[in-house]
Amino acid sequence: QYPALARIVRRQDLRQGALVGNRRVSIPALKETGDVGFTEQFSLLGGANQKSFNAAIPSAALAVGRVVMEFVDGPVEKPVTDTSAPYIDPVRQLVRSTTGQLQWHYGGGGYITFDTPGSLGVVGFTGGQPVEFKHATLTVKTPFASVYFTANGRDGTLIKAKSVLVSTIARGVNSTTVLDELATSEMHLPVWSASPEERGKLLVEPVVVEVTWRGRKPKRIIALDHGGSRTTPLQTVPFTVTKAGVRFTLDGRQTKTFHYLLEME
């Protein structure tokens, strides 16, 4: 049997981003006047999940690289330093990390991507548009989904690993949950659920994603069970080899699972 899904939390190879924001506070000035040298505001807009920030450095800079606060023993001439602007594109509504491994597409519903030697994936609302990675193109047909490709092995990479674990997760609710279909969000939010005694099975939305794989060629693609183990009999996913790469579709409506294994040649 395939090991439990603990493997998906293997040590990732995301590189630490460069310093892009610094707020410098003079300790003597703070003691004497209570002034930190810059102004930041935070407020709640009617609920804990609705927040407003007015920061000295744009909040988007946190998706670019490291943003710190430095306390200085002497005077401070320039309290705020912000070098995040080249990585924030308001026209394309895109934020890139300094490493190039993370991207935040904040237009529309919004989604994020990560692309490293050992993993790639997308989380959010892609609108059914193809999303490009170094070793793959993913076209997610499900409105909201999280799709992860993770090379197995502590130091495995997508191009060298003998197998790659794929996880596809969407929405899930209790079977007795009532959904608010009048909500403005594309996702109908659950607004009521029965008591624990009345709750039924967990209903999980299946994920459909079309994949063009440009990594190591798989010899077979296996649909795993909900715990990440092989099934008996073994369920496989067909694929075709083209000039553009290996093409296949992971369709949770047919496989009834979240997880797949790419076994490489």
Number of strands: 24
Number of helices: 2
Molecular shape = elongated
Largest sheet descriptor = 10 strands, antiparallel
- Round the Cα radius of gyration to an integer and report it: 23 Å
| Strand/helix succession | EHEEEEEEEEEEEEEEEEEEEEEEHE
- What is the strand content? 35-45%
**Portion of residues in helices?**
under 10%
- First-residue to last-residue Cα separation: 19 Å
- Unreliable residue runs: 1-11
What does this structure look like?
This protein has 265 residues and is mainly beta. It is 4% helix and 43% strand. It has helices spanning 27-33, 252-255; strands at residues 19-26, 41-47, 50-54, 66-72, 80-82, 88-89, 94-96, 102-105, 111-115, 119-124, 131-132, 136-140, 145-151, 163-169, 172-174, 178-179, 190-192, 202-204, 208-213, 218-223, 235-237, 240-242, 245-251, 259-264. A 10-stranded antiparallel sheet has the order 6-7-8-9-10-13-14-24-20-21, with no helix packed on it. It has a 5-stranded antiparallel sheet with strand order 11-12-19-23-22. The chain has a 3-stranded mixed sheet with strand order 4-1-5. The protein starts with 18 loop residues before the first strand and ends with a strand. Mean pLDDT is 86; it is low at 1-11.
